[in-house]
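Pilot study result, target chain (397 residues):
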Amino acid sequence: MSDKAKKILIIDNSSWNIYNFRLGLVKELKAEGYLVQVATPVDEYIHYLNTTHFTKHIPLKQLDRNGKNPIKDVLFFFELFRSIRSERPDLVINFTIKPNIYGSLAARFNGVSTISVITGLGYSFIHQHGLMRIVPILFRLAFKKLKYLIVYNHTDHEELLKRSLIDPTRCKVIMGDGIDTEYFKPISPEPDTIEKQPFVFLFIGRLLTDKGIKEYVEAAKKLLKSNKSVECWVLGDLNFGNPADISKTELVDWIDNKYIKYFGTSHDVRPFIENAHALVLPSYREGMSRVILEAMAMGKPIITTEVAGCSETVVEGVNGLKVPARNATALYHAMDKLQSMNRYRLLSMGQKSREMALELFDKRVILKHYLRLIKNALLTKSPSSAKQERQFDKIED
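Predicted structure:
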């Protein structure tokens, strides 16, 4: 690096994301000698500023994560534009959908190099209707001058190229944010849960239709009819306002009928994973499912769906089982098959999960890929023109 440290601005849609998913990247960048700034809305996770990893936090006030008001989005764009102009970072890294769109555009019009990270194509690509149809158009506009676009799985990569949303030479696959495999690790070499009854399945995630929660509950109903020595646990929060949310009435009905045991939310999922025999995530689509990777790192077999961001984590019959999405019957059969296996087969599956987590998804492996792209992106200045900056000078004035 040059004598003057390069400044990198990370834009995300919540401080929660920075605390839970990006701190490893921030620490690695600082260790490499970069100055790291973060721009997010302020929430209770802002306490990460107590660390010494950041040079500055920029509080975002105009970001409406789930809103569809174009005026708010325009205000958010100009908020980012002014922040980037004021701070003059050498590189902007955007995470999540609105920063990907408006952060990329704001950086381009300021002549700043940009990397955007799609953590998952999500609801807008699962349900292409109404205002959601405009998302690919905005992506195409925002990604036009990116240094790199990073996606978390090969299915999303293929989808973006098929739609011609990004130059193929600049679209790269990195398998998630990386897992701290020292924090998420088996508590004992041969977990006591293998011998315990009842057999415990665990679902971790927001209680959304797209996470497959309804299929999980339907499969749980069928299991409990034929096998009383099974429990189906759920850990996660209700997400009111999301188009795919479930109702309070549904949740209460599931609990009252003892189809599931509901534990609310937790800041530490490890005790729940440790006390379960297997993790189940029947999601319709993910970027790269973090809860699956956490359970793999803790040595648990996995049951998940044959979709982007889930399928990549399981080798059928080796560390878990895969089923079609939106298919409660297939999920029931997979769960019944897994709980019927002998302890040695379950142990073998769990051990293989741990090995795969170490080899493919460990944060040390993942962060090397990020650093390589970041260093490449800093080699040359963004091709954005001075004419664009002058045009925005007039708007600002």
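One observation from the pilot: The radius of gyration is 22 Å. A full batch analysis is planned for the follow-on phase.
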